[in-house]
Amino acid sequence: MSDSEAASNGGGVLDAVAARLLDASVLERIGIAVASTTLAILIGLVVAAATGYDPVRFASQLLVGAFGSERAIARTLRSTTLFVLTGVAVAIAFRAGVFNIGVQGQFVVGGFSTVVSIIWLAAFVPSGTVGGVVLLLFGTAVGVVAGGLYGALPGVMKAYGDANEIITTIMLNFIATGFVGWLVAGPFGDPEATATRTRRLPDNVELPQAVFGDPNLSIVGIVLMLGVVALVAVIMTRTRFGYDMVTSGYQDTAATYSGVDAKRMVISTMAFSGMIAGLTGALFVIMIQGYYTDPSGIGNYGFDAIAVSLLAANNPLGVLPAGLLFGGLESAGSHVQINSDVPVQLIDGIVGLVVLFVAAPELFRMIAARTGLGGDVE
Amino acid sequence: MSVTDVLTVARLRLVGITIGVLAVLGAVLSGIFDVDLSRLITRGFVTRSLEMATPITLAAVGGLYAEKSGVFNIGLEGFMIVGAFTTAGTMFALGGTSPTQGDVWVAILVAVVVSTLLTAAFAVLLIRYKADQIVAGLAVWFVGLGFAPFAAALVWGSRSSPGLTSIDRLAFGQSPLVFLTVVLVGVAWVVLFRTRYGYWVQAAGENPEALDTAGVDVDRVRYATVIFSGAMAGFGGAVLLAHAGNFVGTGSTMVDGRGWIAIVAYLFGNYNPVGAAAAALLFGALDMLNVQFQTVGIEISARLVNLLPYVAVLVVLTVYGKTRIPAVVGEPYETEE
């Protein structure tokens, strides 16, 4: 890592960040991830205790809510698929040194487009299994393309307008939520529904269930998740495109010398990342929701995905355990909401703390050095 | 091109874009909706716009100090949420659902103190422990988004507060906080560009080695600016609440992206407090167009109009493009030892 070079421009910041991340060994990264999560959960328990709740009971409710029953496990796996997929979307971009904070927006746009396109095409396709498969594939493709385009947009703005992608993607999240919310309430709303939502997907658009008999968890979703993780891992490590992408991430000058067009790389990275986010949106509506509601209420998968990816050091394989952790936390959240009077937002706060600690590996290095503990961290 | 030339060009471009945005908006309104523009721009509109611009301005002034000194405080949004909640919580603790004006002022003060303390911890993480500024800043947002509604649920049994009280307006129906902000912007400008301390701040972001050689502790300057930025963002959140009169913690909370818009405001204002305030006013006015549209009878969804500031941010960032950011933003400073 060359400090003087990194210091020369704004893009150098990303160089330095990426280089620092790559410097850390795998073992150290795992140590930091485990330490960050543990510390954040501990602080969460202290907060629970300080505000008058029983921390031991809260902790056990977290565990029971995540893995305590067949139903809980199914719910955990369901959230895990979404966290892993959105986490991979974030990891692609972060690995390439592009801060795509807009996965939430791309997820919303992708999911909404899937619903609208399936409902539109359903009029022309026979009902029955074959028609269902056609609708499903078509809707997913539309979701992927829509997410990809919505992701490419800030890429173009960065490449040709020099607009900081952190801010543009955050703005695009607000715009996606507001605009799709308006569409769902107005032009695309179901006039017969009392709730604010679109019409339902036709009955033949459904995925086979998984082992747990949970209607909202499909084996197809889990296979898709594993497939995407494997595919992205292979693309990043075994293809020219992936190599160029990762090189642009930690050493953009080297990438430029080897003939990578930096502008095109930013756009294709953002599009790739947005496509995975759009795919997640499609899976979300087909497997879980069956229609589209106001996106301000569908959960923060795209935001928490940032934490998932960072916890995994932006490694697509590492996203699997990190996504499982978040899936477990979310599942525990819905358990806590029903069975406990601890406000469930505490879990969101814990997630924030995880991210905060992941950002400061030096903190743990220093703690490890001071206490002489945690040889795996140092 | 000399520095002054660059600045002039930048300023011209800034003014150009602003006029462009306003002209397009005016043309669309009078052309498509057949609206008499003089009815749209009323005194109430100006008042509301100023009020809405105030929190953005405060956060922007703080943020630009931090960035000028070489630290990108991307956590402004999070500190604004903390400030807004703390103000509401303190008001409620002091006066229940009908706090007095004195309570409001005390609550604002408490909010500034609390966000200052939290930012101090954040600054230690950034400077002493060299945390990744982008990721840690995002984390502040997440922490705010989680803990503020959590605390609200503890206090009020719901993520939003009941109606508390908003600050009394003074002359011309203006909030005293607007006047205070104007003064602060002026002081911030003078300190940054006309005092020795301001030069230290700029040097810490442009050439920390030189500052170090001159015997000034770079990290100390940065601690001061980062803590100042968090205090200002917390103050901004407090002002937002003092104008609104109740806390909303659902969705992206009542702050709703204003901390992010503040970052754009100071980029657009080219790290000049006065420019940042002008940009904040533009965004504030766009935010308040909603009410105007209703009064002149334009049938357009409030939800869509509320997206205008975000769209404006995109246009501004893309067209205005790269600002001359300080040379070493984002880098921890290592002393030569």
UniProtKB/TrEMBL annotation, chain B:
Keyword Membrane tagged = yes
Q: Where is the protein found, in the record's own terms?
A: Cell membrane
Q: Which GO terms describe its cellular component?
A: plasma membrane
Q: Which InterPro entries match?
A: ABC_transp_permease
The record describes its membrane topology as: Multi-pass membrane protein
Instruction: Give the UniProt keywords, A-Z.
Output: Cell membrane, Membrane, Transmembrane, Transmembrane helix
Query: Pfam families under this entry?
Result: BPD_transp_2 (PF02653)
- Answer yes or no on keyword Cell membrane: yes
Look up the signal peptide feature and give its range.
none
- Residue stretches spanning the membrane: 12-33, 45-66, 78-98, 104-127, 134-156, 176-193, 226-248, 260-283, 304-321
- Record CDD domains: TM_PBP1_transp_TpRbsC_like (cd06580)
Q: Can you name this protein?
A: ABC transporter permease
Originating organism: Halorubrum glutamatedens
